Structure formats: structure tokens, C-alpha cells
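Suppose you are handed a protein chain with no further information: no name, no annotation, nothing but its sequence. What can you learn? This example shows the usual starting point.
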Amino acid sequence: MTDLAEKDLWEPGIRQFETSDSVMGGPDGVDNIPPRQLANRTVYLRNRIAEILGVSKTYVLAGGTANAITASYTPAVPEVVDGQVFRGRVQTANKGATTFTPNPAKDGIAPSPVYGLDGQPLSGGEIVGKFALEYDSTLNDGKGGYVLTDNPGGIRRTVAPAASDNSNAVPNTSWIRTLISGALSVTGLSASGKVDGANCPNLLRNGSAEFGALGWTMAAGLSALTDTAGATGTYFGNPAALVAVTQSQNSEQVPVSPNVALSLAYDVNTSGVNAGTVQLVLNAYNSSNELLSAVKSLTIANGTASARYSITGTTPAKTAYVKACFVLTGVSASVGGIAFTRGKLELGSSSSLYSNEAGLAFLQFLIGNFKGAISLSTSSTIPANQVGYEFQTSVGGITSTLPHPSTVSAGSLLPMYNNSTGTQTLSVPGGNFNSAFGSGTSVIVLPPNACVILVSDNTSWNGIGGAGAVGSAVKPTNTAGVGQWTSLLISAGTNGAMSLPPGGTWAYFYFNQTTAQSGVGIAAGGTVLLTGAAAGGPGISQASGFCWRIAQ
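A reasonable first move is to predict its three-dimensional structure. Written in C-alpha cells, the prediction is:
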């Protein structure tokens, strides 16, 4: 006997037998029509109940593998239809493209791919723990698939909005990356192309006149200025009109080796220039301060509003340092017609976003901290870029050659400490020293365990501190006069008093062994500090201390 073929179909009605109907069997026989219609309705109702009670409301524990998920439901799912929702829970997150099969042993339901809400196959990490899948027969080229509609704890895949979208749509990482790698423009920031997250440090100190003219050889007609309106900040510009001016403004030396790629960038405004040429130049010099060549130069068009310009090049052979330069040739300009600001010199063949690392490092130096400490053990030359470090000599008999004071900024400090048992010779070819160790000379000698703090005035190295340097700090000595020191004592079992020596003013300290109390202060010479027991004192049997003469 053959069973009726049942379908998931809600029949619109149940056929009634008529008196005129003939008895007829078979699949399409009159006798089988009403039972088949009832059977179809039964299958339909059963499947809907399965969806409501067995599939839609229960998270079954899924089987299979991380990327080939299966789930068995009770009652079993005989087939899948559009809109049917399957819920489950996995123990291992998917790691790539994923398929799903409900009741894999029932009616040969084949695995079908799972898609995100963006309509793309999964790529890993979307199904973590609980999940909900909705069947869609239009997916997978019409062969059907599942849409991941709920995935607590997993990556949610969404459609990327248009780059210009300004709505409340939820952006995905693809949209954000597209926005960053394209063009970004917001208030206060304008950039095109790639925005570098890792910035190269700025090697140019005071590149935007934030410290005035410090470190620059100023061109006639250009000054360090400040925009009081706040739009530009500090900059180099012309406070007065220029007429046929030919000048070059050069930065301080920036040490660099040969064959090094460098980039120099500036915001330049030539809106008031009506004649001549304005150039941004990066020059290379050898160790003898001789110009080798221009690493790169760029002529800025006259009458141009403020814009960012950059030049890149590679330093030639024998390069010891470079300078950033503004070169004016026959320039005539109205008041404020030229401006250079936001200067940045950096390593590499392209310019990154403006930053000011060299200026920040200089600020640390200004507030009283040296850049660091360098130990010297052999005769050597100290380069200009190491001025600001503290130098310690551990081996005597060496010579340290200092940079000429004109090669560093006025006010630069150079502390030298001879921490050895021998002497240390300091030499400055073509320059001179003014200190207690020698004045008007190009060579001075530091004795053992001596130090000197030198400051440049662009002409000489001047001693402003340290042992033996200019100044007369009071130093303890066992001779007479200011600085004299001596011990104070009341011996046990003796008469007498503890008194300061006669004359002058003294600083003193003592400790009373009898009472375990101390005393400290300043008093005139001859002052009695303590009296012994035999001299009518308060029973003091022993006290000791010292005093130091601080004034005549």
C-alpha cells in the first residue's frame, strides 16, 4: 500500500463527495482528494508549530564544526522555507566562510552558506555563542542560504554607507577606512590622500618663530612676528614694505650624514610679493662650514595665498649638516606680504603632518634640564648638536675640542666636569674662553675634580659657574677670614664654655651629649653657646660641634 504524498500547503477547502461521484482510487482519484487536502493542512500546521515551539523559541546546542554548523530540532524540520528562523548555540566561534544544516539526517537537507547583513559570506568571528539564522531562497544564486540576524558577542556585518553619508546610519570599519584613505576635511584640519598615523619627528628647532629669531641668521627685512588675530600664530614675515631686497635667511645647523633623504615643508604666503623671486631652499654644508650644494630648492609663485610646500632630496657626499633657508632675490612686497610658518624638516622622501618635537625638546632644555650626560674617555671633538649635554671626563690627560661659539645659539650651556685624577684640556679653535681658568685664550685646563659651566654669546665661551669659575661662592677653609671653620668642644669633666671665635659672623652647629639636644644658628663672634657644669652651667658634662665664618 502506498501512502498519500503530503505537502506543506494550506488547502483553501476540503472537497465534498457528491452522490454522482464514482469510486476511484490512485493519486488523483476522487476518493483520495479530501484525505490529501486534510493531510496537506496537517503538514502545514505541524511545520508552523515546529517553527514556533521547536525552532524559533529554543536555542539548541549546535553540532558539526566551527565552519560547518548543524542543529537538530524536535520535531525534526522536514524542509526549509523562506523566512524560517533557526536558533542555536555554538561552542566554537567560526573562523571563516560558514554553512548551516538543520536536521542533517532528515530528508536530505543540504548545507547552505551563511551570510551577514551586508549580503556577504562570513569571514570569521561572527558566530560566537548564540545565533539566529533566517532562510532566504534568493541567496546563493537562487539556491538558498541563511542570513545571520542575531549574534550576541560576534562581529556584526553591515552595509557600508556612502562616503558622504551624514545620517544616523551605523558605520562599519570598511566605511571608516575608506573615509581615512580618501579625503578628510573637518573644522581645523584639512588633508588629502593618506593621513599618516606615525609621524616623523621635526628636526628643525624654532622653525615657526615660536622662540623669536633664536637659531636663525635673519634676512634684512624679515622678522619673527606673531599674528595677534590668532589665525597664524608665530611666523617669519616682513613688518615693513620691501623694495628690491636680495637676502637669505638661514636656520641653525642640523647635523646629518651624506646620502640621507630629507624633506623640508613650510606654509608660505607670497600674496604681497609683486616683484623678484622667493625660494624655499635646503642647503648642505661640510664640516668646514663650506656650502656644498642645495639639496633641493623651490620657487614660490608671487601673489600666492598661504599654502603648504615641500621639497625633498638626498644629501651629497661630505655633508656634515644642513640649513633651511628662505632666499629672496630682488623682492618687492607690501607690508606683511611674505610669511613662512609651520616649518618642518624630517627624515624621508615625503612630508608628514606638522609637529614640533625639536621645539619641545628645546623647551625642556630651557626650563633647566640638560639633555643628558655623556662620558668622555679619549680626546675628541664635541659637535654643536651635543651642546646642552653634561660632559664627564673619567680619564685624565685628554683634550676636548669644543664647537665654535658662533655655531650654537647664544645662551647655549656646556657643562664640563673633570672627574679624573689628571687634567683635562678644553680647546676652541678660532674662538676663546672667558673664565677663571683663563681669559682671552683658546685653550684652558681643568684640574682634577674640577668643573666649569660655559655659556655661548656667539663670540666666546664664558664661565658662569663651577669650581674656579667666575664668582666668589663662600668655600670652607682652615685659614683665617671668610670661610674659616673650626671645631667647638666642651670635654667631659672639664670646666669652661662653648664660645664662637672672636670677630665676624659665624654659622654654627653643636650637639649636647648630656641632654641629647642640638643647636644651630648664626651669631656674632665671641657668643657663648653653652657653659660647662663647673662654670655654673646646667650640668653639661660634654658637647661638640663646629662653626663656619660667613662674614668679616
